[in-house]
Every structure is written in structure tokens, then in C-alpha cells.
């Protein structure tokens, strides 16, 4: 099939590259000329394991093209994927300006039947709005061309995007058109050889499915953080509680890790947007509001622990950070808990010395050059002479550490672990003061 993909971010680029990799002809289009120019030279704008090889291979073999020429992409694709950002608006609702801009572009340039596929995460009712925007452009041009809009939300995780896209548990498609069903079966057929993974449903159900999935996952995290905070005050170890509840198959072990809060471009904005949608239809989504406010509070937990350790006196101290990205295997810093911590530390007059395997360039881009931020090339460099080490992201190489070396390097033997990576007993035996999340200490 010939497929156009609007947006070459985490979702658009992965979608385009993976669909090309199973034999489709894909044209990716973006308004960011520098990004497109880089992609044409094989420069991948994001860190995503495995993506670079797939992009290069398919580009070299002529199945994957990059352009800023939207008219060309509209003419090219039978399917028009919309995979642009839907950031939160000031009131928490999803900002649809980029999605609707693409819809207008398609309406302006299409000269034959098109299937428009909403892959961006969009509120219920957006497919209708996309359809209306296209219809308005066609009316302005005084032409009558048939088209369909379907919903195909994306469930990939950054850091495992290729694996998630190619081996997804389900492919949700919302449509009431047999023609769209046939086209989407052809598009995703290569991923359904083992068994049919496509779940056809109504458009509105598909749109809501995406929000419901993210809200459920965010709820699990906030719930576990609530239990962790309680455990801490009750002198119980939440890690033992985690194992105790995870062993119940109705609960399961997935996604019940306590920590310093969820971040990223999806959970925070999607929980807020769903709560906002609820309000618009006169429903107070109390659970969703609580998930959001628990997370907001949780992102302050690391700073609060440091304040207690240092009796509120953080001015002039150097705090080492291991991990900046909102989660491992990505360079994405959107809504990362590390940002809340760093900004609070700077406001308190402390310096940050940080290491992250992938997100340091992004951190430098966001914060620029500043005296109270030093990014170092190796994790133990961050710790040398620091007053405390804080772990913000559970990158794999952080899971084991040389505690004796930490003890020697740190000016004060304080380790604050936002991801509960270590055994408190072993750290204490190594002479370190260890503060994790919900592990029964008083801090
Ligand atoms: P992103 O910010 O990484 O990329 C969006 C891209 O769209 C940018 O490159 C931008 O330049 C481009 N763009 C903006 N307007 C455009 C236009 N008119 N024409 C062409 N390109 C345009 O976004 P993302 O993280 O890939 O997210 C895209 C959507 O997918 C969002 O709705 C998001 O909620 C959803 N989603 C994201 C993830 C994730 O893990 N990042 C997972 C599932 C769903």
C-alpha cells in the first residue's frame, strides 16, 4: 500500500518505519524542515532502540521517503496517518490544532478517495471534527471527493516502541465502514499472520480506549505510590507489599512499582484530558483527578526527602543525579520527575551534577548553560564530592552499583532512591544512609 504519515515524532516515525519494513511504500511528512533534512541523511531525531537501523534500511531500499511537501504526501498515500502531537492546552484538554491543521492540509490537496487514520491520541469526537475540517476545505475548493476518517490509537511505549508496534497485543481500529476495514486489514495484515490482532470497534469506543488504557496504567502507579507513602509512615516495606499483592493473578506484577511519579508525554496529559472531557459532559471524574494529584505530589517526594536529610539547608550543596529521562531507554524529558527535582533544588540554591545515558543533550537543550547544572559523561563522576546521590530513572546499568565506591566518593553518604533499586540492608552495611520510597524508614 502507499501510505503517508504526518508527523515524524516518536509515533509517526516508528509507524512509518515499521510499515515500510513489512513492504509498504511510506512517505513521512513533517513541518520541521531540519528534522526531515536530517532523516533524509539517516539522522534519527530521537533515541529509540532499534529505530535507526530500520529507518536506514527502508530508506536505502526505497520504501521510506521523507518530505516537507504535504501536497506530495497527500497525493501519494491511499492511507493518510495523522501522528502529530496533541499537547495539553492550558485547561488540560488536548490541543487539537496540529491534528486539525493536518486535516485541513489533506482537504486542501486531496484529489481522490482517501482514508484518514487518526493515530494521535485524541478526545472522543475528534474523528468527526477531522471529517468536518476536511469537508470544509473540499467545499471551499468546490469539489466533491469521498473520504473516510477512522481512529487507530497507538499503544507503543517509548524505549520499546519497535517491539510494541511490531508485536502489539492488539491493533484497535474504530470505523463503521467496510471499505476502511478492508484497507486497515491490508495495512496491518503483516502483523496479524500469527493470529488476527485487529480489534474493530466504533470510532468513539476506539478513541476512548486509548485514554482508558493510559488512565488505567497511571491509576496503577498512583495507587502504588499512595500505598508506598502509607507504608513509609507505618514502618512497612512497600516492596514486600508489592510482591504480596502482585502474586494475586487478579492484580499481577505489572506496573505496580512505587517510585517518584510518572512522567512522559502521555500519562500526565492523557489523564488530564480525560478528566477534562468528563467535565465537559457534566461528569466529575474523581478517580482521575486523584490519580493526577497523587502523581503531582509524588514528584516532590525526592526533594522533600533531601530537605529532611539536610534540615532544610540545601543552599550551596551539590546533589548528584543518576537518570534524567522520564523512564529508561528514552531521551524524552517531557514531564520527567527529574525536572521537578532539579528545579526545586535550584530554587533552594543547590547545584545539580547529573548523568543520564541518553537524555543529557535534551536536558542541555531545555535548560541551556547554567552554573548550577553540570552534565557529566560517567555516572561516578556525578557522585565525586557530592552531598547526596539521587536516583531518578531506573536505567539498567544503575541496577547494580559499587556501593563501597559510592561511600568513598560521596562527601556525605546519602543515597535517595526514587526507584527502589537497591536492598536497604546492603547499602546500610556499606555505610550509606539509604532513603527509598515507602520502605519503612521515617524519611
Ligand atoms: P512528537 O512531539 O514526538 O512528534 C510530533 C511531530 O509532528 C513533530 O515532529 C512535529 O514537527 C510534527 N508536526 C506538527 N504539526 C505537523 C503538521 N501540520 N504536519 C506534519 N507534521 C507536523 O509526538 P509523539 O510523541 O510522536 O506523539 C504523537 C501523538 O501520538 C500524540 O497524540 C501522542 O499523545 C500520541 N502517542 C504518543 C506516544 C509516545 O510514547 N510518545 C505513545 C502513544 C501515543
What can you tell me about this protein's structure?
The chain folds into three domains: 2-200, Rossmann fold, CATH 3.40.50.720; 211-296, N-(1-d-carboxylethyl)-l-norvaline Dehydrogenase, domain 2 (Orthogonal Bundle); 299-435, NAD(P)-binding Rossmann-like Domain (Rossmann fold), CATH 3.40.50.720. It has 18 helices and 14 strands. It has helices at 10-21, 33-40, 51-60, 70-76, 97-109, 126-141, 161-166, 178-188, 203-234, 238-246, 267-280, 286-298, 301-309, 337-347, 360-367, 379-383, 403-409, 424-429, and strands at residues 2-6, 25-29, 64-67, 79-82, 114-118, 147-151, 171-174, 198-201, 318-322, 351-355, 373-375, 388-391, 414-417, 433-435. Strands 3-2-1-4-5-6 form a six-stranded parallel beta sheet, sandwiched between helices. The chain has a six-stranded parallel beta sheet with strand order 11-10-9-12-13-14. The protein starts with a strand and ends in an 8-residue tail after the last strand. Bound molecules: nicotinamide-adenine-dinucleotide.
Write the layout of secondary structure elements.
Layout: E1 2-6, H1 10-21, E2 25-29, H2 33-40, H3 51-60, E3 64-67, H4 70-76, E4 79-82, H5 97-109, E5 114-118, H6 126-141, E6 147-151, H7 161-166, E7 171-174, H8 178-188, E8 198-201, H9 203-234, H10 238-246, H11 267-280, H12 286-298, H13 301-309, E9 318-322, H14 337-347, E10 351-355, H15 360-367, E11 373-375, H16 379-383, E12 388-391, H17 403-409, E13 414-417, H18 424-429, E14 433-435
Parallel strand pairs: 1-2, 1-4, 2-3, 4-5, 5-6, 7-8, 9-10, 9-12, 10-11, 12-13, 13-14
The protein binds nicotinamide-adenine-dinucleotide.
Nicotinamide-adenine-dinucleotide (NAD) binds next to helix 1 and helix 5.
Amino acid at each position: 500500500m502507499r501510505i503517508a504519515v504526518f508527523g515524524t515524532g516518536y509515533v509517526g516515525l516508528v509507524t512509518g518505519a515499521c510499515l515500510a519494513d513489512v513492504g509498504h511504500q511510506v512517505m513521512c511528512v513533517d513541518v520541521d524542515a531540519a528534522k526531515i533534512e536530517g532523516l533524509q541523511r539517516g539522522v534519527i531525531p530521537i533515541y529509540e532502540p532499534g529505530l535507526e537501523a530500520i529507518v536506514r534500511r527502508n530508506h536505502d531500499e526505497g520504501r521510506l521517503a521523507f518530505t516537507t511537501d504535504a501536497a506530495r504526501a497527500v497525493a501519494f498515500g491511499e492511507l493518510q496517518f495523522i501522528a502529530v502531537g496533541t499537547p495539553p492546552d492550558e485547561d488540560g484538554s488536548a490541543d487539537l490544532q496540529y491534528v486539525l491543521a493536518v486535516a485541513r492540509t489533506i482537504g486542501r490537496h486531496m484529489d481522490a478517495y482517501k482514508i484518514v487514520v487518526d493515530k494521535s491520541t485524541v478526545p472522543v469526537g475528534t474523528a468527526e471534527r477531522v471529517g468536518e475540517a476536511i469537508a470544509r476545505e473540499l467545499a471551499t475548493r468546490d469539489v466533491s471527493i469521498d473520504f473516510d476518517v477512522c481512529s487507530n490509537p497507538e499503544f507503543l511505549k517509548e524505549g520499546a516502541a519497535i517491539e510494541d508496534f511490531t508485536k502489539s497485543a492488539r491493533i484497535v481500529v474504530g470505523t463503521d465502514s467496510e471499505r476502511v476495514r478492508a484497507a486497515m486489514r491490508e495495512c496491518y495484515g503483516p502483523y496479524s499472520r500469527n493470529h488476527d490482532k485487529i480489534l474493530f470497534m466504533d470510532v468513539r469506543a476506539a478513541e476512548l480506549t486509548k485514554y482508558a488504557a493510559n488512565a488505567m496504567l497511571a491509576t496503577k502507579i498512583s495507587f502504588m505510590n499512595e500505598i508506598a507513602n502509607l507504608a513509609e509512615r507505618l514502618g512497612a516495606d512497600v516492596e514486600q507489599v508489592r510482591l504480596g499483592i502482585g502474586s494475586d493473578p487478579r492484580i499481577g506484577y505489572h506496573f505496580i512499582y512505587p517510585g517518584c511519579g510518572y512522567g512522559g508525554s502521555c500519562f500526565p496529559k492523557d489523564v488530564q484530558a480525560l478528566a477534562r472531557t468528563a467535565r465537559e459532559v457534566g461528569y466529575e471524574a474523581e478517580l482521575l483527578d486523584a490519580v493526577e494529584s497523587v502523581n503531582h505530589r509524588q514528584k516532590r517526594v525526592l526533594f522533600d526527602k533531601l530537605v529532611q536529610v539536610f534540615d532544610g539547608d540545601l543552599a550551596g550543596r551539590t546533589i548528584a543525579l543518576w537518570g534524567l529521562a522520564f523512564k529508561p531507554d528514552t531521551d524524552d524529558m517531557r514531564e520527567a520527575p527529574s525536572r521537578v527535582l532539579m528545579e526545586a533544588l535550584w530554587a533552594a540554591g543547590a547545584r545539580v551534577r547529573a548523568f543520564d545515558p541518553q537524555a543529557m543533550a535534551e536536558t542541555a537543550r531545555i535548560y541551556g548553560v547554567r552554573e548550577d547544572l553540570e552534565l557529566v559523561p560517567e555516572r561516578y563522576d556525578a557522585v565525586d564530592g557530592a552531598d547526596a546521590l539521587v536516583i531518578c530513572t531506573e536505567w539498567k546499568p544503575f541496577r547494580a552499583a559499587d556501593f563501597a565506591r559510592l561511600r568513598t566518593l560521596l562527601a556525605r553518604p546519602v543515597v535517595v532512591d526514587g526507584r527502589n533499586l537497591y536492598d536497604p540492608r546492603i547499602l546500610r552495611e556499606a555505610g550509606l544512609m539509604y532513603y527509598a520510597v515507602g520502605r519503612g524508614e521515617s524519611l
